[in-house]
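User: Structure please.
Assistant: Input sequence and predicted structure:
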Amino acid sequence: MAKPHVQVRPENQKHDGRGRPPLIELDNVRREYPAGDEVVVALKDISLTIRAGEMVAIVGASGSGKSTLMNILGCLDRPTSGSYRVLGRDTREMAPDELAALRREHFGFIFQRYHLLPDLTAAGNVETPAIYLGREPKERHRLAAGLLDRLGLKDRAGHTPNQLSGGQQQRVSIARALINGGEIILADEPTGALDTTTGEEVMKILRELNSEGSTIIIVTHDMHVAEHADRIIEILDGDIVSDTRSADSPHAPDAAIRQEADGGIAGGAESWRDRFTEAMRMAVRAMRAHKLRTFLTMLGIIIGIAAVVSVVALGEGSRQQVLSNISALGTNTIDVRPGTGYGDRRASATHTLTAADADAIAAQSYVDSVTPSVSTSATLRRGNVSASASINGVGDQYFRVRGMKLVEGALLTPQSVDTIAQQVVIDSNTRETLFPDGSDPIGQVILVGVMPAQVVGVADTTGGFGNQDSLNVYAPYTSVMRRMLGQDYLRGITVRVKDNEPMDAAATALTNLLRLRHGTEDFYLRNTDDIRQSIEQTTSTMTLLIASIAVISLIVGGIGVMNIMLVSVTERISEIGVRMAVGARQSDIMQQFLIEAVLVCMIGGAIGVALALSFGAVFPLFGSSFKLIFSVSSIVAAFACSTLIGVAFGFLPARSASRLDPIEALARE
């Protein structure tokens, strides 16, 4: 039965009878919207006061401005002019996050289309405003369970919206509006999408909530629904044409619901943690809901990270092999060569390096060992086997200078050099060539050119520079000079510097010594440390160049992340609007989408690193002499890089989402 209503006098709208500021007060509120070249006036200088504990119905036909009025009352929209005060605070002076705090702490929304988040359960939807308020998890679980039980949905708490009927979804929406206390409930056509019976049940619930202290504001076009209220405000073409109150309208009761919800608010750090956890869950749900799109977004990051990590590992492997090869030539060695430098065409005619120079160098305090050297090529013969080989005339300290290891037998001795002995040390390749039957070469005689020589040892020469398949024979330099070449000068002297001596100082001292002995500088030095540094620098430069090219794919992948996130924001505008309506801050919305972008990049980075490690395991199977050497620092850098890409390229979409207008967002479907 309809209740008798009386006209409310304007003067009674400015106070609540207890000396406190009105709960809601509008003063000459006007709302205009641009429509092409024209301006549409939705509200025309409306003044209105609503007391705490009232149940108010705002009625009007479609286009009358009632929904615009509700959006302004709920701090979802701002008036073009005039003032709107909540508990005495003027909303014109509030920043977006302050308005969000009002929605979060004072308002609860019941939408005609429910606006439940589809990926959350009924309990999850109810708890969402409490998360943004900062309620402790146990407390909000308790409150949500109690509200759903009270509304007859205890056994449906774990169901998602698509598993609920329209009436059940509206009850979930009511529970969500009450989770933070239900001080002011704004219901937009709460029965519009429901059948008559369910609609009556919803209105009964709203009446009960009003009797317990909640201020209820209903927006409807149905007078039958409006008659449940104690006060009916009729609006037409943006103007309030009537404002009537029932004769038995009650005074504002105590806020029992709000008292029940008080307490259980987490501190700053804990509140932030809960909101972060919720944002993380939503990001994971969004990624799982679009698996293929997420994978394609990751693909650019995967390829880029895998390429960068692999290139860096390959560069490090190359560097290590180069250093190993240089070490095989001898540690801290300096080669003395005739002439003025590389490419000197007169070097072959310079015959000033002698064995006496080598003896003088060996006497220096900074020298570890010295070997003279001459070289030629000759044919080796044993029985009916013959092969071409490099003949190296060396001193007895040659093998220490070069860091070569003896496989079997003995090395050359000072006596071998002094007596011009016809002895040789052969390498493994020579042994396999001349002794294919596997016989012991030690003590056997081979023909080196025209010189018969006894094999005294076999040396391991693998790992050095040059052709690894060549044949090398090492004989006393005196024997090669006298018996094979007929010369008394050297083609070079190799000096091994003591480990604790600086190479630059040793090279300077060596230059001064030979210049003093020769009276001129008819020689040049080749420092293996210089070679090592030069090769390392070249390797590093090439690695950096290739890595830079690989980084381009990372940037392309980052742009892909940004594009996909912009698409994601567009698809989820309605969800963003709902979250803003229940009190999400701009930082909460930004955090949610930023976390999603970072997760995509981090997971892509992890897969990229795994792919690079797998490539490193398979790479040696292709027969390459190089190895990929991975470092923890490069892997950590890869993760850091993928995270930075997520932040850098996810910021713009996240910022765009956080700055959406709640009204426009809620209007999207």
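The first strand starts at residue 5 and ends at 7.
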